[in-house]
Amino acid sequence: MKHTACLLAGLLAAILFSEISSAQPIGTWQAYTSRSTVLEVTQDQSGAIWAFSEGGLFSVENGEISGAITTIDGMYRINPTTMFYDRETELLWLGYSDGMFESYDPETGRFRQFSDIARATRFSPRGVNQFVMMGDEVLVATDFGMVLFEPEREVTIDTYSNLGDFPSGSRVNSVAVMDGRIFAATPEGVAVSGTNGDDLVVPDSWTSYGPESGLGSNVRDIVTFGGDVYVLMGGEIRRFEGETWQQAGYFGESDIEHLKTSPNEDYMVAWNDEEVFVRAEAGSEMTFAPDDGLPLHYAWVDEAAQQLIIGTTNQGMYVKELQTGAVHEQYLPEGPYMNSFSDLVVRDGVLGSGSNNLRGRRGTGSTQSGYYLFRDDQWENYNDLTDEVLAEYGFHSAFTSAATADHFFFGSWGRGIVQHDRNTNEVTVWNTENSILDGFTPGSSFLVVTGMTADRNDQLWAISHGNTINPLYRFVPETEEWTVFPRLEGLTGTDWYDRVTVDSNDQLWIPMINDRNDGRGMVVKRVDGEQIEDGVILRDQTGQGNLPHPRVNAVVQDRRGEIWIGTQRGLARFTFPQRVIDGSQSDRQASLIINADETADSPFLLRTSHVTSIAVNSANQKWIGTEGEGVWLIEEDGGRHRAVKHFTTDNSPLISNSVSSVAYDDETGQVFMATDRGLVSYTDVVRGSVADMDDLFIYPNPFSYRDEDDERVVIDGLSPETTLRILSVDGRLVRRLETRGGRVEWDVRDFNNERVATGVYIMVAVDSQNDQRGVGKLVVIR
């Protein structure tokens, strides 16, 4: 009886304790993708509007925008090629460029993916271009013909890749069904099936219409309207009249790029980048354009509400009255303005990122690309549409970032540097006219900032790309004073400073490239007051730096003071970076990362990986972003290193394996990953430690094996290096964990790897450095 009373008392204490505990869910993913560029629109039987954007799906119902649907929610990819809503089954169908397709049930939120087309290795490419219903079956237009799919049994019934006289495997851009016949639009013309139920796999079952019947090359869209079949070809609309295709004469001389009809075929809808044209079945025609003048992507007619829905670039959806053209509503989902993120930086819980649509750091970016701040779970978008100062200076195409205690800085392609006050949101633009900054070539006003960083004194360091005389600058925010520093002597004209990192020894680590963007190794030199002492040049040759590759994309200092570099071909580190300049030749040789897995193909970890970025977490583990391999998490194991996690699009909600930047939030344990398709985050077990331990946060609490599929408990609120002892209520030691970082997982098992019994368990944490103690309780229910 006494034991039961104690157990109940402990259970009550643990439950009360759990009520005041809170923490970010561990192992969860979040997507932060832009939904402002609407690529396609459809509508379900209830009138809800469904749209897919560059950042995934969303819907509008009763005038309200729902949240984004992305890979986090089970979607195959965030960028479908086509979408179709089946009013009979109430399913949304999505197709993709690699041949995958899926159905989505809005009622249950469930996705069902089908790989039949993607696995058809006979043809390549295998993209999905359109869906139409044929009774209870789905007819899929693909890059190699058409596929007839039965959803109920989830099987492919037939593949039609031989369409009459057209080449086998011809791409079907669009498909329509009328009076039991299939009309397929291809690059060669239109293929039409017979009506007598012949086997459509046989080429003779199709009639081919090409130039001899009035059709040119690449028929783009095909629709049925008013009992006739129409195609879009070469910017004009043609109608099928018996055995020939004649000009329809619709919409005057307008150049048409897309052609659709409304669900009940009351309206024909055509559009180009600037205007939408609508023709009623009765013959009247109307022309519409979005008020902001941004390029159009899609148009849809809501027949019941007599409204036109237009998808635009960066401004979401416009809904206009069909009869008057007046704007009824604009739906612009909240979130990042564009779907591009570059050079992530986190400071004091706030994420900063550049935004640009540059590729390979060449060309002109969108004037509406600026930068973002993400704080308190809210996105702040800064560009020439949202900020007067940025508009005045024509600032856009930000792709480098840095942060101090009071400011964020963003460097651009040709437009200088923005200084953003994080407390007042005051914006200052620094360029060649109001500072000593020099441009792309000496004397040029075109200032390209390829690298920026903040040092331990909260001073900004910046690189002027292409300037071979004065490429390096330091800025003191308090005095607004800029100082210029020349290049290190001994460099050639093809050695251009690219990026910059300042370590705890006040040494500058500066990767270099040439005018073709090829790697040229790295410079290391020391800051000494207003002067910069001579440094060293590190190359990829043995005895001259031993870099894994001359293209160095990332430089970070870890929590032990080591310098880690990521290159186009692998990782390396400098164990004693303070000796690189003044030490011996052996001190300035990079060491490859030894693989703890002795059975691996290479003795060096990630030896051939194209590393783009590195972030260090509170436990000194490294998050490694790569080009094509997703993201790795590695940690030290007895002087060697091993991969702890590896996230790709195949095994996680990561939306692309092309990762350009990673950043770690010490306060929450979130790892942000910028890809070529948007931004995601993963909440790591490790997070920043606390200065003083007291009550530990333990969750879930109570813990039930029946409720917790992954069987783990998180203990939060730890100091940097902690020994955690887990005790039963009678004082028996159940498990001991040595931890680094602010939190740790326990698999709810004892020393013998057996599940612990029902009861109350005491957690006692002791800091190995200063004897801080933390205590908590956990209830386990089997």
Describe this structure in words.
With 782 residues, the protein is mainly beta. Among the domains are: 2-25 and 689-781, Immunoglobulin-like, CATH 2.60.40; 336-464, Methylamine Dehydrogenase, Chain H (7 Propeller). 3% of the residues lie in helices and 45% in strands. Strands 34, 35, 36, 37, 38, 39, 40 and 41 form an eight-stranded antiparallel β-sheet that branches. The model is unreliable at 1-24 and 359-364 (pLDDT under 50). Keywords: Signal. Residues 49-207 form the PorZ N-terminal beta-propeller domain.
Quote the distance from N terminus to C terminus.
21 Å
Radius of gyration: 31 Å
The CATH topology of the domain at 336-464 turns out to be Methylamine Dehydrogenase, Chain H
The outline comes out as globular
Q: Biggest sheet, open or closed, and with what strands and sense? A: 8 strands, antiparallel
- CATH architectural label of the domain at 336-464: 7 Propeller
Count every helix, treating DSSP H or I runs of 4 or more residues as helices.
Answer: 2
Structural class: mainly beta
The pLDDT mean sits at 89
State the total count of DSSP E strands: 66
CATH C-level class of the domain at 336-464: Mainly Beta
Q: Give the helix level as a range of percent.
A: under 10%
In the predicted model, the low-confidence regions spanning at least 5 consecutive residues are 1-24, 359-364
Strand content range: over 45%
